[in-house]
Design brief:
The complex is a heterodimer. Chain A is an all-beta fold. Chain A has no helices and eleven strands. Chain B is built from no helices and twelve strands. The chains are: A mainly beta, B mainly beta.
Chain lengths: 115, 115
Amino acid sequence: GAGVSQSPSNKVTEKGKDVELRCDPISGHTALYWYRQSLGQGLEFLIYFQGNSAPDKSGLPSDRFSAERTGGSVSTLTIQRTQQEDSAVYLCASSSGTRSSYEQYFGPGTRLTVT
Amino acid sequence: AQKVTQAQTEISVVEKEDVTLDCVYETRDTTYYLFWYKQPPSGELVFLIRRNSFDEQNEISGRYSWNFQKSTSSFNFTITASQVVDSAVYFCALSETNTGNQFYFGTGTSLTVIP
């Protein structure tokens, strides 16, 4: 079946502009996660959704970052007033359950470049 | 403090050599899960294995094997008779039951297999 998809695959934006990144999880997966991967770094947890609610927003780096999920499916990560340090690959993952034992399935990521 | 440490940033081996990727974790939970993911040059992370904290049996899957030792808080990954297709970045991750759904990823080990 279809895996996790993300769009756009690449995004170049000017500093100060807002961007929206989209994630389509695997159908039926209740949990959805956003991570950020900077060059040469591991994965930095941003936020996760259980259904449409986000119990843990602790990883969002600043109030410029927000995310929502509608219909228990598609999620959008929004970065307002982008800064150069926001340049990274943003990865989305989903899992079939919300317990810590469930493996996550990752999308191909969105590479964001802020000029 | 880093919950998952992958001290080896980059490793190069010649094809057919064996290679071990180290992973050391830190947790106070008695129930937790450990994972390995592979990120090939194409960029998409692929799930390799999950281990729960109560199962210290080593696991072998083809050329891959995993050595889980609670006494040293390590979950090492060995590739036997490496192949060029094994070239990728490998991530170790920890999921704790008391933090619910957050995964802690190491910074990854970049493996290059030279033909």
